[in-house]
Amino acid sequence: MLESLREIWAYRALITEFVRRDLKLRYKNSVGGVAWSLFNPLMQIIVITQVMKFILPNPVKDYSAHLFILFLWAFIQVSVIDGCGAILNNAQLIRKIYGPRAILPLVTILNNLFHFAVAFAFTLAYFFARGTYPQHLRPEFLMVIPVVICAVVLCVGLALITSYLNVFYEDVRIIVSSLTGLFLYALPIFYPIEQVRAHPEIYAWYMLNPFATLLVTYQRALLAPPIVRNAHGEVLTPVGIPWDYFGFTCLLSIGVLWLGFALFEKYKWEIVERV
Amino acid sequence: MAHGQNHQMVNEMAMENAIEVQNMTKVFRVLHRERSLKAAALKWARFRFPRREEFVALHDISFAIPTGQSVGVIGRNGSGKSTLLSLMSRIYRATSGRITVRGRVATLLELGAGFHPEFTGTENVFLNGVILGVPRDELERRLPAIIEFAEIGDFMDTPVKHFSSGMLTRLGFSVAVNSEPDVFLVDEVLAVGDAHFQEKCYAKIEEFKQRGVTIFFVSHDMEAIKRVSDRVLWIDDHTLRADGSPEEVVAAYQEFDAR
Q1: By three-state DSSP, how is residue A143 classified?
Q2: Which of A84, B133, B147, B194 has the highest Cβ tally under 10 A?
Q3: Which domain holds residue B166?
Q4: What is the rounded distance in angstroms from the CA atom of residue A221 to the CA atom of residue A241?
Q5: CATH code of residue B181
Q6: A21 vs B127: CB contact, 8 Å cut-off?
């Protein structure tokens, strides 16, 4: 296993080259280039903000600013779906050229990380333009770094597992994409986490979902907790950075990565004969 | 006396084998398994498990190729030649036995393998070069030589999906030979080029031989085999049937093939 890691490291030039290839391909035939990676989440943010104006009884101040965590969710979701197809989509290459195959799922995640970086820069620009920053910029902002690292680790792990499974069962990709679609409702994106916190018995389970914890931590790193009122107009307990759950998510992500890599290592030769 | 001994030792070092294949067997497991999780789950629910079949692609192959030798591989279609080449380029893992290939390997298993159709000729040179293990800055330096050898100067900025198969072969071959390999593994790709380009390839292969590059290539073109190789392996029915001088082995194969 250590030897395989060393080999992946030795092939880092190839990883760079593949990332470059995929980014180039994505933008080759489209006017506007990088803007497209912002388009989808941005439209969602606008639509949700407008819809929620009618639904929420007590509007949350700066609701749309809090919605900017959608970019992180878009990164995770697309990484997992793309990662799942990483091996099968490169079948031609795998059959004819040698290289550590684990770099393929890795490349898709790195690619999406690039798009996330663009979206993140956009988020900062937006916050500064609106005057949210530098006024609300707090030391907690630095937590963005561990959150993104943790998300990458988790996504690479999931991509290794699902891309391996996808070689043997082609419908895994469909299952993965509909599951990640469902996750949207189990995440504190449309509604503030404080509303979940108001039900402690649900909250404990809810936060075991690593995606929920990542999004909450990311949101609290960017912005202070909003003031959320319940139907009776009472202010709900604010939720800060959930350190305990975040710690758990980090451990879980490392576990998933380890499992994914071990699984991939064990079956890497079968994968080639099967694609 | 002492001098003689010393000389022999140096000779042995120089004669270290570039390729060693020992009692190598490759069995493919053909699984008659469901391609979807849904179908598989339905079968498991009825206690029906996948059927397993084995297919011996290569059986007990052994040979050793000293550094600098050119070896041609011949045999009928489906005899296992390409599988052997794939095994040597580490695409597959041998079921038993050992394969050792020493030095920097350049593999040409398929026309334009690793080329991306949407990319231009130049972009593909970089992509393919890095796949073969040449650093980017080094490729930058060799780019003129690569373009010149491939003779497609005017089309280097055209996406390769518009290339003819001849142009693809030329570019692929040019990148591979310019990666300065120690071991060059080639599967029947030269057949596509025109006579002029084939001549250039043979000249390049001659140059490789002078430089001590080990060449291992599969071909159905007996003239090419006789011209390039120092030694010929004949794979028949998944085993090594003959291993010897080009004249003998080719003659034996042609006699067998005519039957």
Answers
A1: helix
A2: A84
A3: 68-258
A4: 7
A5: 3.40.50.300
A6: yes
Any domain includes B224: yes
Distance to chain A for B8, nearest Cα, Å:
36
Count CA atoms closer than 13 A to B48's CA, side-chain side: 10
Q: Which residues of B touch A96 (CB under 8 A)?
A: 91, 109-110, 113-114
Hey, what are B10's tokens? 């140096």
B254 located within any domain: yes
B107 domain residue, yes or no: yes
Residue with tokens 């639509």: A47
Q: Could you tell me which chain B residue has the CA closest to the CA of A16? A: B130
B17-54: burial string, b at 16+ Cβ within 10 Å, e else: bbbbbeebbbeeeeeeebeebeebeeeeeeeeeeeeee
Number of domains in chain B: 1
Are residues A97 and B131, on separate chains, in Cβ contact within 8 Å? yes
Number of A/B CB contacts below 8 angstroms equals: 63
pLDDT tens, N- to C-terminus, chain A (275 residues): 889 999 999 999 999 999 998 888 877 766 666 677 788 788 888 888 888 777 766 667 778 888 899 999 999 999 999 999 999 999 888 988 888 999 999 999 999 999 999 899 999 999 999 888 888 889 999 999 999 999 999 999 999 999 999 998 889 999 999 999 998 888 998 888 998 999 999 999 999 999 999 999 999 999 999 888 888 888 888 999 999 999 999 999 999 999 999 999 999 998 998 87
Amino acid at site A71: F
Written as six digits, the tokens of A73 are: 């969710």
Scanning the structure block, which residue is given the tokens 């008659």? B32
Q: What are the chain B neighbours of A170 within 8 Å (beta carbons)?
A: 35-36
Residue type, A99: G
pTM of the model: 0.88
> How many Cβ atoms sit within 10 Å of the Cβ of residue A273?
15
Q: Which residues of B touch A (CB under 8 A)?
A: 28-29, 31, 33-38, 40, 89-93, 107, 109-110, 113-114, 116, 118-119, 123, 126-127, 130-131, 135-136
Q: Which residues of A touch B127 (CB under 8 A)?
A: 17, 21
In a domain, B32, yes or no: no
- Chain A window 111-170: which residues touch B at a Cβ cutoff of 8 Å? 165, 168-170
Instruction: ipTM value, please give it.
Output: 0.82
Burial class for A185, CB neighbours closer than 10 Å (0-12, 13-18, 19+): exposed
